[in-house]
Amino acid sequence: MLSFDTIQTPPNPSVVNTHRILVVEDEDVIRDMIVLALEDEGYEITAVNDGRSALNLLQQEDKNSQATETEFDLLVLDLMLPQVNGLDICRLLRYQGNIIPILILSAKASETDRVLGLEVGADDYLTKPFSMRELVARCRALIRRQNLTNSSSSSVKQFRDITLYTQECRVTVGEQEISLSPKEYRLLELFMSYPRRVWSRDQLIEQIWGPDFLGDTKTVDVHIRWLREKLEKDPSQPEYLITVRGFGYRFG
């Protein structure tokens, strides 16, 4: 199910990598090869063979860690797993607000399968059979991207031609400044902080309006519509604020 090509240059034993990766794969040979390849890169690996064990580890991590500190830096996740499948794990983690980068591994290679995996919360999707070289490269890229997000203390968030100046509470589209209400601004700031993450209406209510909000979740839809009218060239065909049917909204 995978190519066993190895990195041509041997790993440098002096390289120490502090990042931790959780590998969830039920096929022993594939799991062992993934662990070996990632350990050769200096990563610290925890490997399990079923979805329930993975959730137990990740949910225990949430109980013990601060919101900005996670035990694992990356989740490498097979889809076809015993007990709890990979798609359900993705859905649950994102619903709970866990932002760990997720790389899906799957023999399902159709466009529909890839889109579904990304829409339920995965950050990348690698089809079997795959090259170990490519797997390592994708893991490295996801961790690097997450590090840039976590370490960024910049007062400016940029996505395509949208720029958000956090210290000034100001937003521009291209060179034109747009006027946003406080709730619209906070929604946009949240979306731009986690591009491509899918947020349910309940999650957005809790993040922006607070847990004591007694209104209807349709409030979210109204504010999304107002934001689209201000950000999108064609609000009926949005490029930024995307509806993920059955789940909620994502940015980008």
TrEMBL record:
InterPro entries the record matches: CheY-like_superfamily (IPR011006), OmpR/PhoB-type_DNA-bd (IPR001867), Sig_transdc_resp-reg_C-effctor (IPR016032), Sig_transdc_resp-reg_receiver (IPR001789), WalR-like (IPR039420), WH-like_DNA-bd_sf (IPR036388)
Keywords: DNA-binding, Phosphoprotein, Two-component regulatory system
DNA-binding region: 154-252
UniProt modified residues of type 4-aspartylphosphate: 78
Chain ranges of the OmpR/PhoB-type domain: 154-252
Superkingdom of source: Bacteria
Annotated GO MF terms: phosphorelay response regulator activity; transcription cis-regulatory region binding
Record-level GO cellular component terms: cytosol; protein-DNA complex
Residue stretches making up the Response regulatory domain: 20-143
Keyword Phosphoprotein recorded: yes
Protein's GO biological process: regulation of DNA-templated transcription
Pfam families reported in the protein's UniProt record: Response_reg, Trans_reg_C
PANTHER family: PHOSPHATE REGULON TRANSCRIPTIONAL REGULATORY PROTEIN PHOB, REGULATOR OF RPOS
Name assigned to this protein: Two-component response regulator
Organism: Crocosphaera subtropica (strain ATCC 51142 / BH68) (Cyanothece sp. (strain ATCC 51142))
